[in-house]
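If it is no trouble, can you show me the amino acids of a protein and the tokens describing how it folds?
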Amino acid sequence: MTPLDYDFLRKLVKQRSGLVLSADKQYLVESRLLPVARKAGLAGLSELVQQLRGANAQALAVEVVEAMMTNESFFFRDRLPFEHFRNTIMPSLMVARAAQRRIRIWCAAASTGQEPYSLAMCLKEMGPLVAGWRIDILATDISNEVLEKAKAGIYSQFEVQRGLPIQMLIRHFAQLGETWQISPEIRAMVQYKPFNLLNDFAGLGMFDVVFCRNVLIYFDQQTKVGVLDRIARLVDRDGYLLLGAAETVVGLTDSFRPVADRRGLYAPNAGVCGAAPRLAAIAGGR
């Protein structure tokens, strides 16, 4: 692959997904895109780039972008966000939404579904506390391939061993040979939809909670700012945003501010996006 070919692929992937590939990632690109080239009947990456430069390359470009996505995910990843969800977010929102008894959650870049299913299991474990409530979980990802896996809810032994408590495995999964499938009841709690974070968010509606974890790290500064500002417009005034352990809003947007003593948890900033974060209930959820 020539330097010009690599530069073309870097620009294509960034334009379509926001993913920034540094100059030293050529080996990664080659390892992930050679199978795409072979599947298309092409001799190598130079021919792949030639095809991408031509007309009617939309389907091939989608395959290229999906192949470059890092779909790393596991159940209850990093543990702390799910503690925030159980001990801070849900108690706070259940006070604020007592009249409507409805909560909307968005898991952006949900990959193969472990994060939204972890939230669904948290809600299921709450039992009578959420009885009579309508709690919607929307999970989105740019890749149709990983969304199909998420919808099926079938995971390998290795995947269910990563972060999933054995008690939850027994309660919420059925063994299928060497794999495990999450129960129809838990699967029904999550709606999956293809969505690109570079697109307009207007059609998604408003949310009480947004999980946007471990995806901003792949974007450049300008793209991070754009994503966070668009999220701010659809988070309710007393809602919450959760980011990954290596991510922050600090220095990127004034629309959110960190919640004290809750690493990775952010609340809308009063006066910036018309929100007045409700912190009294947060203190009560400790």
In short: The radius of gyration is 20 Å. The chain has two domains: 3-68, 80-284. The chain is about 40% helix and 15% strand.
